[in-house]
Amino acid sequence: MSGMPRVFGSEALRSPLRFAAAAACLVAAAAHVPVIEDHLEEALYIGLLFVALSVACCVVALLLVRWDSRRVWAASAVLGVLAVAAFVWSRAIGLPQITDDVGRWTTPLAEVAVAAEAAMAVLGLVALHGARIPDQGATRRWRPVVSGAAVLVAGLAWTGVAAASTGDEGMSGSGMAMSGHRYWAAVGGGRFHGDGVVRHYYIGADVVAWNYAPAGRNEITGKPFDDVADTYTRTGPGRIGSTYEKCLYRGYTDATFAHLQARPASETYLGLLGPVIRAQVGDTVKVVFRNSCPIPASVHVHGLLYGKASEGAPYDDGTSGTDKADDAVPTGGRHTYTWLVPDRAGPGPGDGSSVMWMYHSHTDEVADTYAGLMGPIEITARGMARPDGSPRDVDREVFTLFSVMNENNSPFLDANEHAYEQPYQRPDADDEGFEESNLMHSINGYVYGNQPMITLHEGQRVRWYVMSMGTEVDLHTPHWHGNDVTVNGMRMDVVNLLPASMVVADMVPDNPGIWLFHCHVNDHLTAGMLTRYQVLR
Ligand SMILES: [Cu+2]
User: Fold this and answer.
1) Dist. CA 497 → ligand 1 center (Å)
2) Which domains does the chain have, with CATH numbers?
3) Ligand 1: distance of its center to the CA of 476 in Å?
4) What pLDDT digit, counting tens, does each position of 407-439 carry?
5) Helices (H), 165-275
6) 501 C-alpha to ligand 1 centroid (Å)
7) Distance CA 529, CA 478 (A)
8) What are the backbone dihedrals phi and psi of residue 532, each rounded to the nearest 5 degrees, phi first?
């Protein structure tokens, strides 16, 4: 032993593990490099710490190979433990300036870095504790070198793959304008990386007798409907009133479609909207769809990644056979739609932790959506979702649809006339009043405040997902009384919607009470496009 090289007064261990440990150090260093630039911009001290950590890892790697003294092994182990501890702290508690990392346990580069750092710690402790392994002779000395090189190659390859699939690491919340490579990497996102779960939804299209005004009075004024409101809500000779047969998406508990999914009291405001579909980037969504309506129908999704067998829209797209089965599911038929959730379906450079999409029937798009076949989707950033797919940094989510439901263009118009007119009158082509009476200016299928109260709590982090569908008249300007929102980082209390718009608006209510939430288009608010929300203390 006396002949062994000494460094800093400590004897070399000659551990055969030193090459693997050095490789782990180099991989740990490499895994931090791709995000140094982002961190230098976002939180300077983190960027500098990353630089220091990478340099220290390289130095320790060299020392391990050359001298592998107890002190070098100890340095390697301590470095590994400190780095893992800092990671855990940043994800569990949060570090100053980058608290948006909290909960993001599974970002690809972090997985590589933590694995390498853990290896540094474990190998260091093993080497320090373990008995010295006797020199196995010249013929076997190459084995540790080869295994170390293998660790290095595998680790660097893993780092490369992780860096490539990390389009937006470190940018969320930085609020900085981007350009060049980083910008376009964020626009495209990584290829679909199925590291999430498969989420099954069982959605039926069912005929439902839908009442736009179940309270039977104007809940905004607290009084009976006046003459204007009667135009839309009152049944009579040649007038359908407020109840219409519709075809709606409804959630079921499983593929037997025997039990409707219960909607808790806090969610009854969703009204005629289909079940909220939630997923996280990296997930796969499978919608088992059963059509019980007398019209063929489909489920067409916005935003997610789908193939031709899951598009739900019939047109001449050069496909045939099973790729057409999704286009128009016949009465009594079923189809399973498979949608992937890549980066580009999740939050982009200017978004918060989740974004909104929608789904609707697209077999006969106009008639199907007026029949009511529409629903909301919410996609949460990778690593930010609760088990149900909702973002962990949001306390309450509200989904609203502003639409003038044109029952004149519903496939059920004739049926509705026969079922609800009192008495039925043969259609008169000149009766403009009839056409007007069937324009239901609704929020989630409710008019004149008949929607169940949307309840929030003071100080909650509330995310409103607001959408619209329809035609030229469907330019809506939802306006919140009492509290403000931010949309794309800008402060407002009115948002703009056009047909198929989807807007995410964040609110931290500070003003308790019952507040109006209504479309600010004059013609629409007199026709009933108003509701209320309540902020509880
Ligand atoms: Cu409007």
Assistant:
1) 8
2) 6-188 (no CATH), 198-536 (2.60.40.420)
3) 3
4) 999 999 999 999 999 999 887 878 889 999 999
5) 180-188, 227-233
6) 13
7) 9
8) -135, 150
